[in-house]
Design goal:
The protein is of the alpha+beta class and 106 residues long. The protein is built from three helices and three strands, in the order βββααα. The relative contact order is 0.15.
Length: 106
């Protein structure tokens, strides 16, 4: 496999490309260090009041590489209004609880 080549860098997202000699495929990958997000989300979650009184509640922060993964998985844009149920499905999944800034089911 060839050495990854930088295609683009925007914010903290790095997009690379490399060629796999064995399969003859070109692989484009996006990478993002999500640890700073996870740390900030945990801090916000610890400062949130319990309960759902009021109109607006911040419930999650989702790094763009994860949104991209979900878009690929569902083969649609999970941020569009008509696909909101898919976004809620992921945000209510215990596997993604570290993205939640507020406890409880949304």
């Amino acid at each position: 496999m060839s050495k990854p080549q930088l295609l683009d860098a925007y914010g903290d997202i790095i997009e690379t490309m490399q060629y796999d000699d064995a399969t003859g495929r070109t692989i484009v990958s996006k990478h993002q260090d999500v640890e700073p997000y996870i740390d900030e989300i945990a801090r916000q979650r610890n400062q949130q009041e319990s309960g759902w009184k009021g109109d607006l509640h911040k419930v999650a922060t989702v790094p763009m590489v994860i949104i991209d993964q979900w878009n690929q998985e569902f083969k649609c844009n999970v941020l569009l209004k008509e696909n909101r149920h898919l976004l809620m499905l992921k945000l209510n999944d215990p596997n993604y609880s570290k993205l939640r800034t507020k406890e409880g089911r949304i």
